[in-house]
Amino acid sequence: MYQYLLLLDTEQEREFFQKMYHEHKNAMYYIALRILKNESDAEDMVHETFLALTKYLSRMIDNQPQKNWNFILTILKHKCYNLCKKKKQEIDKCLELENTTDTYGEKPDDRMERLEKQELMIKLIREMKPSYQEVLILKYYHELNNTEIAAVLGETQDNIRHIYMRAKHKMEKMLENYGILDAHGI
Q1: What CA–CA distance (Å, rounded) separates 179 from 168?
Q2: Is residue 96 part of a domain?
């Protein structure tokens, strides 16, 4: 909190900010966590929201508490949704249909079948929850192992292993529903 206080000009702003910080930080964190479903991202968005609020304190001091809370909530949700969009764009970039592998000598029918399967896999991954998407993309697209994925996502290896197993099971069920796999994985 002290880093925020250094950004403020008057003692009145500092006192108001401290009061606001202590009153709202926990609620803000839980709202961000509910939207983002990731603890470190939620913490980051709360931090960014408080940084943004330092610019508006002089206007907020005389407002009703409910009006200030609505303003805080608007900024927080906006930042969370922007992060979600950014992550979705990163996932979409990873899932581009353009294949960079050499297709020289590939028969047109084989290429078409491969692209159709690739398109189906992209569609299925997009239907999964974000934690499953991240793990599958890092595992198969970026070819990272569980240890590397854990480091990238700030999770434990054990948690990554569980997420991967759940995502893989979900993918198998989805493929069964499309008639690609039978119940025995064939």
Answers
A1: 16
A2: no
The HSE-up count of residue 61 (CA atoms within 13 Å, CB side) is: 15
* Total domains, the chain: 2
How far is 133 from 48, CA to CA, in rounded Å? Answer: 25
Residue 43 makes CB contacts below 8 A (sequence gap 6+) with: 29, 32
- Please tell me whether residues 83 and 123 are part of one structural domain: no
Question: pLDDT tens for residues 7-57?
Answer: 666 788 878 888 888 899 999 999 998 888 889 999 999 999 988 888 878
DSSP-derived secondary structure for 8-44: --SHHHHHHHHHHHHHHHHHHHHHHHHHH--HHHHHH
Q: How far is C-alpha 104 from the chain's CA centre? A: 37
Say yes or no: 87 and 133 in one domain.
no
User: Domain range for residue 31?
Assistant: 2-91
Is 101 within a domain?
A: no
- Please tell me whether residues 34 and 61 are part of one structural domain: yes
CA distance 54 to 20: 11
110 domain residue, yes or no: yes
Whole-model pTM? 0.50
Q: Which amino acid is at 170?
A: K
